[in-house]
Amino acid sequence: MLAWNNPNAIVMVAEKRKDAIAYIVKRFAKRLPSVIILDDAFQHRQIHRSLNIALINASEPFFNAKMLPEGRLREPLKNLKRANLIVLNKISDPQKADTIEKNIEKTGVPVIKARLKTAELVCVSGAFTTSEEARSMKEINAFAFAGISSPESFLESLKEEGVNIVAHRFFHDHAPYSVKKLHAIRKIADAKTLSLVTTEKDYFRMLGHPELIRIITARPCYYLKIETNIFDGTEKLQSMLKAVIGKQE
Questions:
Q1: CA separation (Å) from 249 to 27, 33, 228?
Q2: Which structural domain range is residue 18 located in?
Q3: Domain membership flag for residue 208
Q4: Which pLDDT tens digit goes with each residue over 15-49?
Q5: Cα distance between residue 16 and residue 34, in whole Å
Q6: Count of domains in the chain?
């Protein structure tokens, strides 16, 4: 999905991030990227980073969570001080976000605020033939399914755009899709004459498996693209990014 949406970028997948960087340096020696972005690497201490950004999900704050294996924290909350910037993301309730921000401010790390916004409903199979028609989502009676963390936000995004969600099913984050799982979804969608709607991430996870794609595209099928809307602190983020890029020039 990242490669598809960023055709001019080098996209690497590696269990050991330092191996990926070593490969980039060797393979692309004549056109080295000016910036390397690591995803989910706050605990990956083997690589020095010029800018360390931590994201906190406002819909699922973890200030009362416990450390692994009892809870889901990978390290103590006090270590957020290691970040240069904290992004309070997926904000839907401003008052709740203000309360979370007050907890974050105790770290002394700058905070910016962001929320998700729907970008486009992409037609994989079905009746939509133009982007204008694809924007008219209110007539869609849908079976929504997703295998992501906090899938409730996906449903909320669809509802805000007027999609009528007749049924839905959630799977564990990163859980593999199977023919059996998708046939079960299709059976319900067939019986109720529903379109299938999933997330962009989930669609691209299935894209490498032709049989799975055949199952879902037998009915009208769509995936929802989302974007991040930074509504408080854009200039702060841009300033930090420019400072990092400027060091490379």
A1: 21, 11, 28
A2: 1-49
A3: yes
A4: 889 999 999 999 999 999 989 999 988 988 888 88
A5: 21
A6: 2
